Amino acid sequence: MAGPLAGVKVVEMNAIGPAPFATMLLADMGAEVIRIDRQQSGFLNGDDSVIGRGRRSLVIDPRKPGATDVLLRLIDGADVLIEGFRPGVMERLGLGPEVCIARNPRLVYGRMTGWGQSGPLAQTAGHDLNYLAITGALHAMGHADRPPTPPLHLVGDMGGGAMFLAFGVVCALLEARRSGQGQVVDAAICDGAALLSTMYYEFKQGGQWTDRGENIFDGGAPFYGCYTCADGGFISIGSIEPQFYQQLLTLCQIDDPLFKNQWDRSLWPAQREKLQALFATRTRDQWCALLEGSDVCFAPVLDFSEAPAYAHSQARGAFMDSDGVSHPAPAPRLSRTPAQAGSKASNGQHSEEILRELGLDAAAIAALRETGAIA
């Protein structure tokens, strides 16, 4: 069954970071994607990578004679172009949005950067941690007695970057179907990560957010955090609501008066110390047997090797296996036009096939090989 984006044609200029992940999301939902690869694989998302699933691959060097003309012909028939280079790179290749949209007025031109297409830092190198640092979010992560803890690049690259790029592209596609006009989607990781922090800015302005490590969601609250068990495993507790907190106390047989006032922040350090001592008396599996499935808001903390085998994930088919590699399945779930993970393509696997679809004959393809435009 075709996915919801069936019929949408995407050209992806392969890069590192969140742009390939955003394109994977579109491909999972049924978009037809042609990935423009370099002759050597890129860092982390090169030849035959899981994130590269659902594409066909054309290896072509846009700096070589004849290559730009081929790419423009390919873009002429596309609905979406996605690139993740530093601002100005595509323009220097003759593939900037002004050129491409002039030729293909309905084109949605998705641009993925860390700092954005404009601003004093636009031409500066950076990584997820740096983009997150200027949003206020990084400062709020970690313990009070040490510098902020670098999170996995889920909040910046993948959440603030890839997800917002995919969202912006789909929004622009819907608008283009109504207006017949394409546009540029300027997706900056720092913008998206800042927007993800909206609730925390509201907390701050309402006096509900203080210093790092002293709040509900940053590990300050004893009823919202992770604890070490007797076997060295970890569990997570999220008993925020009073009724869930009361169930935690009941199931764990906690009758210490210290825990009667859940919201007295002055008691939190002592409460956390006692909870840590309690949770250290049993193994992770023993705590699962007692608390899992209750309204305590409980779950074991699983590592990447354990997560795919977890009963809930198994029941939902949350992970899949490709060539012996276990990885997350497409999401979210659509009832009538479900997403489907496509196969992985080696760099250049479909080069000749794609060039012939563009109308190039054997002589033209041979000429491109002669110039080094294609391998």
Automatic annotation (TrEMBL):
Signal peptide: none annotated. Residues 337-349 have a biased composition (Polar residues). It comes from the Bacteria. Pfam families: CoA_transf_3 (PF02515). GO terms for molecular function: catalytic activity. Residues 321-350 are annotated as: Disordered. This is Carnitine dehydratase. It comes from Pseudomonas alkylphenolica.
